[in-house]
Amino acid sequence: MPHSTLQQVWPAPLDVSPEQMALAALRHEIDVLDDQLLALFERRLAIAARVGKAKDAPSGPHVKLRPDREQAVLDRVLAQSEPDNREAVESLWRQIVGWGLARQGRMQVQVWSPVEPTRAFDGARLRFGAAADMRAVRDPQAALKWASEGHGVAVLAVNAGDPWWTGLRREWAGLSVFDGFGGETPTALAVGRIDPAALPSGRRVLVTAGGDAGDGSGIRRRGLDTHHGWTLSLTDAALPVGGAEGCVGAIG
Question: Among 37, 40, 48, 127, which lies 20 to 30 A Cα-Cα from 163?
Answer without folding.
Answer: 127
